[in-house]
Amino acid sequence: MKTLRSFLREQDNERQAAGALFYAQDTGKYGIAKRSKHCDCPHTYSPVGGSADTNDKDLMDTVVREVGEEIGCEITRDQLKHMYTDYSRPNFQYHTFLCTIPKQSEFMPNLNYENDRFDWFGKDEMPKNLHPGFSKMLKDTSHNLP
């Protein structure tokens, strides 16, 4: 008999997911969410995102939808720039986009149950409790961040 965890792992083999790392132009800080106990890798910081949906035209649509669902903020495709694709799991890719916003003070997340917090950090001030995939992305791309 399969456990729920093994079933979900098998489902991951058929998916793509995408998320947004936020960058505030006025402060030069990066916005990330702290995942709640209801998510995998709970209590870790990561981009806001999730699995692609059959109604999404592409991965940018996934990011726009997920940001709206998880933190209640409207973003546009024009704000997004693809940064990184993580291929570390077989047949599963996680795509990270940089979402540039003009003013940090005007970006007001309204979190759903998937996240406990949303915080801003300088490039060299990221918290220690990062989601493993996000930590890998930062190591691979930190030189490319604005």
Plain-language structure description:
This protein is of the alpha+beta class and 146 residues long. The protein has one domain (16-144): Nucleoside Triphosphate Pyrophosphohydrolase (Alpha-Beta Complex), CATH 3.90.79.10. The chain is 22% helix and 33% strand. The chain contains three helices and seven strands; from the N terminus they run H-E-E-E-E-H-E-E-E-H. The protein has helices at residues 4-12, 59-71, 132-141, and strands at 16-24, 30-35, 45-46, 48-51, 80-89, 92-101, 115-121. Strands 1, 2, 3, 4, 5, 6 and 7 form a seven-stranded mixed beta sheet that branches. The chain is globular. The N and C termini lie far apart (49 Å).
Strand proportion: 25-35%
Report the radius of gyration as a whole number of Å.
15 Å
The biggest beta sheet reads:
7 strands, mixed
Helix percentage = 10-25%
Euclidean distance between termini CA atoms:
49 Å
What is the fold-level CATH name, i.e. the topology? Nucleoside Triphosphate Pyrophosphohydrolase
CATH homologous superfamily? Answer: Nucleoside Triphosphate Pyrophosphohydrolase
Give the SSE string: HEEEEHEEEH
Structural class: alpha+beta
Which stretches are poorly predicted, pLDDT < 50 over at least 5 residues? Answer: 1-8
* Apparent shape: globular
Summarize the structure.
With 146 residues, this protein is of the alpha+beta class.
Features:
seven-stranded mixed beta sheet, disordered N terminus, 22% helix, 3 helices, 146 residues, Nucleoside Triphosphate Pyrophosphohydrolase, alpha+beta
SSE inventory with pairings:
Layout: H1 4-12, E1 16-24, E2 30-35, E3 45-46, E4 48-51, H2 59-71, E5 80-89, E6 92-101, E7 115-121, H3 132-141
Parallel strand pairs: 1-6
Antiparallel strand pairs: 1-2, 1-4, 2-3, 2-7, 5-6
